[in-house]
Specification:
Strand 12 and strand 13 form a beta hairpin. Helix content is about 20%, strand content about 20%. The N and C termini lie far apart (about 45 Å). The strands form five sheets. Strands 1-2-14-11-16-9-6-3 form an eight-stranded mixed sheet. Strands 10-15-12-13 form a four-stranded antiparallel sheet, with no helix packed on it. It is globular, with a radius of gyration of 20 Å. It is an alpha+beta fold and about 350 residues long. Bound molecules: N-oxalylglycine (OGA) and nickel (II) ion. The site of N-oxalylglycine has 11 residues, from strand 9, strand 11, strand 15 and strand 16. The site of nickel (II) ion has 3 residues, from loops.
Length: about 350
């Protein structure tokens, strides 16, 4: 990425960040998970002790009002985050030639990549992706007949030393956190805590190391263009630089998420929106850049197995009072289509969950 602004990165005027967008006045909710740090999550909301009932009220409100919240006292040891951030810093400091030795390709979507597009504009970032459970399986083709599958393994760089171990330890701990948040969300939907867990057997979750280099024209480009996350949940760690902006539902303003040391940002993805039949909605977000400091972030995209048919949960559907708002779609084919459109600049809009919304 040179210092002359390549037009591939330039956002349309209406999508560029404005200097007034950066206020942190009233941020996304901060939720203290200490009630579940040492006590188990109850099997159903009715069996919850008062501290956990209070927590469920907070989670429900945050999911409805923002689709985003930050968690503290989450139980993931700080050392694991420090280690993976150090590994990420060491990896991205390698030469492009070294990084490209573990580069993603059309068959294996895992590894290094520096050409991602969001909504057909190039993102000012480089990434390294690895999956939480190997191998990850995806249909070869997004369109029927889709009964052939590719199975991919992680690609690990030789340098920096300890990279693989730092990534794997972090994945194990954040995976546990992801299941806890999932169970809390199930309870807030009036479901048994473990109602959604089965969808994550053979999960296709992946962790992304994001590196956003300083950008000479932060008013023209974005680190990640505006988007919603397409999986179930995202558990995001960010360093102290800041740059994640969330679109506030009440007035459509972009709100900067203030970095809090050793916290995680949780956001509801499109799959929870569909499962909950729109009780919860995924929120639009983006990454703004700055001209001085590089920024690192680590999202954990908590995704079900490729064969899961995503559709509103039957317990939440009532033909008369609350009919299903979405048709079922296959997660593997959806992600395959999305990955393909992020891989190449296409002239068409990439696949979005609202394409499965039923006509009213
Ligand atoms: C993403 C994303 C936010 C960040 O990668 O989907 O929204 O702060 N990242 O890097
Ligand atoms: Ni995102």
């Amino acid at each position: 990425m040179g210092s002359v602004m390549d037009p591939a990165f330039v956002q349309a005027p209406e999508h560029r960040p404005k200097p007034t967008d950066t206020e942190e006045a009233v941020g996304i909710p901060i939720i203290d998970l200490s009630p579940i740090l040492h006590s188990p999550i109850p099997a159903c909301a009715g069996a919850a002790p008062p501290a956990i009932s209070g927590l469920l009220v907070e989670v429900e409100a945050a999911c409805q009002e923002w689709g985003f919240f930050q968690v503290i006292n989450h139980g993931v040891p700080a050392e694991l985050l420090d280690n993976i951030l150090a590994a990420s810093t060491g990896f991205f400091a390698l030469s492009v030639e070294e990084k490209r030795q573990v580069k993603r390709d059309e068959v294996n979507p895992l590894g290094y990549y520096d050409m991602e597009h969001t909504k057909n504009v190039r993102d000012w970032k480089e990434v390294f992706d690895f999956v939480v459970e190997e191998p990850v399986v995806f249909p070869v083709l997004a369109k029927p007949p889709a009964n052939e599958f590719d199975s991919s393994m992680n690609r690990w760089p030789e340098y920096p030393p300890g990279f693989k171990e730092a990534c794997e330890k972090y994945a194990k701990a954040t995976n546990e956190l992801a299941f806890k948040i999932l169970e809390l969300i199930a309870l807030t939907l009036g479901l048994p805590a473990k109602r959604l867990n089965g969808f994550f057997k053979d999960q296709s979750s992946f962790i992304r190391l994001n590196h956003y280099p300083p950008c000479p024209s932060p008013h023209l480009a974005l680190g990640v263009g505006r988007h919603k996350d397409s999986g179930a949940l995202t558990i995001l760690a960010q360093d102290d630089v800041g740059g994640l902006d969330v679109k506030r539902r009440s007035d459509g303003e972009w709100i900067r998420v203030k970095p809090i040391p050793n916290s995680y940002i949780i956001n509801v993805g499109d799959i929870i929106q569909v499962w909950s039949n729109d009780k919860y909605e995924s929120a639009e977000h983006r990454v703004s850049l700055n001209s001085e400091r590089e920024r690192f972030s680590i999202p954990f995209f908590f995704n079900p197995a490729h064969y899961v048919e995503v559709q509103p949960l039957e317990e939440l559907i009532d033909e008369k009072k609350s009919p299903a708002k979405y048709n079922a779609y296959n997660w593997g084919k959806f992600l395959k289509t999305r990955k393909y459109s992020n891989f190449k600049k296409l002239e068409v809009e990439n696949i979005q969950v609202y394409h499965f919304r039923k006509a009213v």
